[in-house]
């Protein structure tokens, strides 16, 4: 049971109603995470802005989903792991092996593997990566823009992980549980 109210689109008012209507229109569903976020319309607006801006960046949707899977696994967020397992398979068209590998910072695709290696360093060090991590990412072909976006995608996913864990958001996706470390 979610620890904060999940604001329903049919009872929301004002800015909250407008934001939830936009989510419904864009996704065809209104995930419980967004219903929890809209307790503060500013939070949902910030999330949508950050996520939307990164969606227009240098990293592809499958790459962003891989980062989300990695960060959710690292942070033990079953809501996000469930959501991104579903989105990774059905929207980004990642196969089951890639979804499983991404959870552990790996990929059969060399560029995606380099992204995930760097993302793993970012999440595990809470941003305190070493010079060698940046050099390895560059040597693997990541541009400065891609490196910057990996950091941003990790941060965005840490936010959603922390929010969903703190609120204990009811999972409204096919449930996937993290592995205990």
TrEMBL record:
Protein name as catalogued: Carboxymuconolactone decarboxylase family protein
For this protein, the record's InterPro entries field holds: AhpD-like, AhpD_core, CMD-like
Give one Pfam family: CMD
Question: To which species is this protein native?
Answer: Nocardia halotolerans
Q: Which domain of life is it from?
A: Bacteria
Domain named Carboxymuconolactone decarboxylase-like: residues: 41-103
């Amino acid at each position: 049971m979610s620890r904060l109210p999940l604001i329903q689109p049919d009872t929301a008012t004002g800015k909250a109603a407008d934001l939830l209507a936009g989510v419904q229109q864009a996704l065809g569903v209104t995930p419980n995470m967004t219903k929890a976020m809209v307790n503060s319309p500013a939070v949902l607006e910030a999330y949508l802005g950050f996520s939307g801006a990164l969606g227009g960046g240098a990293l592809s949707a499958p790459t962003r989903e891989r980062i989300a899977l990695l960060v959710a696994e690292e942070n033990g967020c079953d809501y996000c792991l469930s959501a991104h397992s579903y989105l990774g398979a059905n929207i980004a068209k990642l196969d089951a092996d890639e979804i499983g590998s991404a959870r552990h910072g790996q990929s059969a695709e060399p560029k995606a593997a380099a992204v995930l290696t760097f993302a793993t360093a970012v999440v595990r060090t809470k941003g305190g990566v070493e010079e060698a991590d940046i050099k390895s990412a560059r040597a693997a072909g990541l541009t400065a823009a891609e490196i910057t976006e990996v950091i941003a995608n990790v941060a965005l996913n840490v936010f959603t992980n922390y929010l969903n864990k703190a609120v204990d958001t009811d999972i409204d996706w096919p449930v996937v549980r993290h592995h205990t470390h």
